Structures are given as C-alpha cells and as structure tokens.
Amino acid sequence: MSGRAAAGAVALMLAWAPPASSQTLVAAVLPSSRAVQVGTPATAFATVINTGAVTAMACAISLAANPALALHYQTTDPATNQTTGPADTPADIPPGKSQTFVFSLTANAPVPPTDVAPVFACANAGPAPVVSGLDTVLFSASATPGPDIVALAATATNDGIGDAGGPPMTGAFAVATVNVGAGAPIVASADTGSATLPIGLHLCRTDPMTGQCISAIDPGPIAIEAGATPTFAVFLGARATIPFDPANDRIFVRFTDVNGATRGATSVAVRTLPLDLGGGFINGIAWCGSQFVAGAGDTQAGGVILVSSDGVTWTWQFTSTKGVRGVACTEAQIVVVGVGGTILTSPDGRTWTPQQSGTGADLNWVTPAGAGWVAVGSGGTILTSPDAVTWSAQISGTTNDLFGVGASSARAVVAGDAGTLLTSSNGRNWTAGASGTGANLLDVKWSGTRFIVAGSGGTILTSPDGAQWTRQATGTDLGLHGVAWSGSQFAAVGADSVIVTSPDGVAWTTRFTGAASLSDIAWSGSLFAAVGEDGVILTSPDGVTWTAR
After folding, report:
1. Which domain holds residue 224?
2. Per-residue pLDDT tens for 169-189?
3. Is 0.90 surpassed by the pTM of this model?
C-alpha cells in the first residue's frame, strides 16, 4: 500500500469530521492500527486541516505523557508523501488549508493494543478533537516479532463512507491489507465499536483482481504470511435509518491474532441513504395509535417498512428480503404481510420479528378479527392466527386471488378477483357471497355501521352486515384500490391518483386526480394519508385538500 493512497484516503475522511464552532483544527490518520516489535518505529500518515480564518501557527504533533512511547514527526508533500522539512519541526497552516505529516511511534517496552491519540495542536489553535478510529492509532508492541496488518478501506464513492441504500438497504466496501510483520493466522471481523447500530455486518476474503469472495462468509483464521496482501469485502445490511454522524457511527474492520489481540484495523463512516423505491409502490398503510406504518417494495427490490408520526416526515424501520403489502394493527401489535408468505410483527413499529406463515403464497392484506388475525393472499389463501405468531391455513373454497379483508365484531369479509366475496363468523368456515359484480375487489373496511368494498372500474359496494351488498355510483371508472373511514367521511383512492369521498358511502365526489396510482389510504384521527406508486405520499386533513409529501 502506497503512502500516497493512505494520504489521499485521510484527506477524504477529513471532509466528514467537522469541528465544533469553537474548534478550528481537525485531523485524520492512516493506517489506524499498527503492531510492531519493541524498539521498531511504527509509522503513519496524518493530515491536519485549519478550518479557521487565520493562520494556525507552529502546528505540531505530540503525545500526552507516556514513558513507554516516543513520537517523532515530519512534514510531507501530499502529492508524493516525501518528507519536506526537518524532523520534529512545527509548521504553519494557512486558513482553510491542510498540512500532511508522517509520524512514528516507538515503544521501549511491550505495549498491549492501546488506542493512542496523538495531539494535533498549534500555538494559536487546537488541539484537534479526538475521534477514535479517525485520528487515533491502535498501537501495540511485543517483545518478539508478530503480524502487523496495515489496512485501508475503499468505499464505492471514495469518500470514506459506507452507504446502505435500496431497498433492501444494503451496501459494501473493500479493504486492502499488507502484512508488514511476521506471518500468522489472522481473524478478520467487522463491528460498530462502542455504538449500537441497526445493521448487520459480514465479510469475506476476496480475489484482488475480481473482487469475488474466495472464502466462506465470516471465515475463521486465515494464514497471512509476511508480505502478503490479502483483500476483503465487507457487506452491510441496515435494519433502520442510520443518520450521518461520522464521528460516532462507524464500521470497524479488525484483524486479530488467535489470542484475540488486534494486529490491524481500519474504519469507515456508515449511513443509510434516502429511501429510493426505484419506481416501486408503497403498497399499504395503517394508523397504529401514534404513527402511520406503511409497507413498500416488490419481489425484486425487497421490502421496507416506513413509519411517520405526522404523515410528513418518514423513516424506514425494517428491510424485508421480500416486498411488504398489507399493514394492520391493534393496540398491542403491528402486523405486516407480503410476498412469498412474509409475515412480520412488531410491538412498536421499530423492532420487527419475522413469523412463519407456513405458505409461500403472496399475502396481500391482514386484519385483526375477533380475538385473532386473518391474512389473505394469492390462490385463495386464507390464514388465521390467535396471536399473529402461530398461523393456520383455512379452506377458502376458491382459487381466486384474495386482496382485502376487513372485520366487524360479528364477521370477517374477504374480497378478491372477479367479484369474489367471502364471509366468516369464526375465521375457519368461509361462505361465498353474491357481490353482483365481476370487478376485482381490492379492499374491505368496516366503518362501525357498514362494510365498504373498493375495486376495479370505480367499484364501491356497501353492506350493513356483509351478506347483502349494494353497488354505489362513484362517478369514476378508474380502479379504486383502498378505502378509509374518518368517522365522518369515507375516502377511496386508486389509479391515476383518483380520490373520491363520501359522507355515507352512497353519494361520492371526486376530489383529486394526478399522474401516479394510489394503492391505500389510512386515517389517523386528524389526517388522511394516501400512498402509492413511485413512493408517492399525499396527506389531507379533510379528504378535500391534498398535499404531496
């Protein structure tokens, strides 16, 4: 690994460690770990930036009192990493400029792995804030020769940031190494240091020419001989939003010997990118006590669960490997269903647990019903559960795809392809009803006094009991995909952003049309939120005036 590469990476990393307003110096170091024999100098490169408005005078590198260590430094040319001045001589740094250095640490006695923080200070500025893994060196010295893994991470954007994007909110970066010490078995691993982050980390050894894994994922000890230059790939999968906080939210890649002593390390900042649904749908939405919960994604892109307390600001909380379609909740439980039999449950919208559905069918919707739950899906699939954890398949009597399910205290109603309507008073025995239409029926809601079903061709059906159904005139022939009840008004959404409202389910008025298809709608108690194609989100306090979010 060249010094120029290290210095370049340092400069890139510095851009992501802004100082506090009263601080004018920032610094970064590479490599961030060295392991040498007692008496052997361990060198590293540093860059110091003066963010202030005046020249930083007599800038130097020193150590806090440490009788076991000696530090020496020298300025360098950042283009070549060649030294440019006398050893241990301070340098002035003009405002807004940087100065590069090479420095060495030499131990006169054995030193266990210790995070050494060089002091970067000037006569009139500093010291630079200490950020472990960014401007520190994990240093160790042993009495006998040992491995010394010099590691450098390279991210896809060459800025020292490991981004997770998607769905399915994943990312990767590469790590190049050289063992400048003795050969030994080494274990490579990745972690988030002292920070607890919602992210999964794995790595493998790679072919340096192709970048393909040539070892198992998370392999055990790998023999790294003196002078060897193995490369690695680190894979990350975020489970929730990680804000951009490069000083604290980092991924550390560590190389330890068989005794667990760190012999090399490097790190990158980590963040999640703004959610990009890639032209996919937000498929379903529900209000769950204090927040909207929505499910998004499709078979190819994976799925995401999004939450918002106000319908305006949204964060994603969980990435599913398959698309998420239907969302429902009680006071104690949130349940989402999706592609390939996906069922996830959560007590709060943040922590999610996959459940075994027992089916590979796509599940389209779910609802609480009586003392349990009912989920419906493709090929006539109906599942029931007393607790949203243990699910049982029921005989529906149809092979038509089922899209919606709603329930009163007396019965559940399921809607599906070609006018399919099914009812049950216990979730086990299902009876086909007469819908009077061949339209695809896509959603069912219970208002407290009546069922309402939305479907293709502008279809709205109403029923006081789920047995006798009446088709209502909506004034649109656009497909209606979802419906909600506010307590005083129904609102239904569908193709081309059509939104129709009604105070009674009988007389309907068109309120909004646009370009994107809407898939579902929910009411929070004070706000409608509608979701759909290309990640569109619309909100309205009254169902009349709508705002794109």
Report:
1. 145-274
2. 789 999 999 999 999 999 999
3. no
